[in-house]
Amino acid sequence: GMAFGHFQEMLVDIQDTLYETIPNFHNIEFRLGQLREAVEEDKAGRAKDVHCELDAIEMRAAEMTISEQLHREGKLPKRICHCDTKVNNVLFDNNGKVLCVIDLDTVMPSYVFSDYGDFLRTAANTGAEDDRNLDNVSFNMDIFHAFTEGYLKSAASFLLPVETDNLPHAAALFPYMQAVRFMTDYINGDTYYKTQYPQHNLVRTRAQLKLLADIELHMPQMRDFIAATLG
Q1: pTM > 0.90
Q2: 202 Cβ partners below 8 Å, 6+ apart?
């Protein structure tokens, strides 16, 4: 958490606007548009069998697009972010001390939610990304506490209240966004993600939705912890 917060902190006053390496990479409105187009075209004839998953996605759509809305209103800035935050993109020495953040090909303008939320999506998931047993999938609050405390030690110096207030939203946004992407690929006939069996992307979608549901249950505790950490 400290490493990725420090990475953002070092770049917060960069003068030149960086190129958007992957346009709309973490734009949830764009991702929802892709899903709705996939459902309309229904190339693989699968849309009729996933109404429950599609309903779960659509019922949250308005809430999950608040970052884009806040940005249009001029309230939420884009900053230079890593956009692929995970443990194996941090270099450690032999004693387990962080040396630096690596794998910089996705560094580009985004909301700080990208680096915060995407890390928790993988690191705080007690199950596998494609876990068939949804009982294995939950949100590890110990990981949330540790990562958030470290992140805020580095990032609190520049974060705006609108950013810190919405960090719990970021934790929910990224499993939601990944569910949207997996579902889009499933309906399109598995043309993007590598799959090992015909329903692999559907299993991935369900696992992300289960993680999202557990995160939603922990929202009050997350808000309280962030408020206490910031003092």
Answers
A1: yes
A2: 50, 53, 182, 183, 186
